[in-house]
């Protein structure tokens, strides 16, 4: 069973999506920010991380993704952000120049449908089928 680190400072958002991922058969460990996520990453192994962009620091998600890739280059990361909707700041991981500094494998804009998140998680973990419940 795949283990996901879900880093998000919005408790309602994190609880909702983490619960849905658990219902879909994943093990989910929640963290409310970069600091707690960093501590969890020191202690535990994860198959994938879902990271909010703006947390304790405005660019906290970028920093955390960078550290995750430094520790474990194989671990896929999904960056979630409301920034593209709230501000005129637009960036994507489609362009090669931005891929070099945005260390995320996928990027989703909030609000998002759970199906969007689930399909990215499955794609990055290489499990197209829903994990079977035991």
Overall geometry: globular
Count of all domains: 1
Largest sheet: 5 strands, parallel
How do the strands of the widest beta sheet line up side by side?
Answer: 2-1-3-4-5
- Reading off the top of the CATH hierarchy, the class is best stated as Alpha Beta
Short characterization:
By secondary structure, the chain is α/β, with parallel strands linked by helices. It is built from six helices and five strands.
Report on this structure:
The protein has helices at residues 11-23, 34-43, 60-71, 83-86, 96-101, 114-125, and strands at 3-7, 27-31, 48-52, 77-81, 106-109. With 134 residues, the chain is an alpha/beta fold. It has one domain: Response regulator (Rossmann fold), CATH 3.40.50.2300. Strand 3 (48-52), helix 3 and strand 4 (77-81) form a beta-alpha-beta unit. Helix 2 runs parallel beside helix 3 (60-71).
Architecture blueprint of SSEs:
Layout: E1 3-7, H1 11-23, E2 27-31, H2 34-43, E3 48-52, H3 60-71, E4 77-81, H4 83-86, H5 96-101, E5 106-109, H6 114-125
Helix pairs in contact: 2-3
Question: Key features?
Answer:
single chain; 134 residues; alpha/beta; 6 helices; 5 strands; disordered C terminus
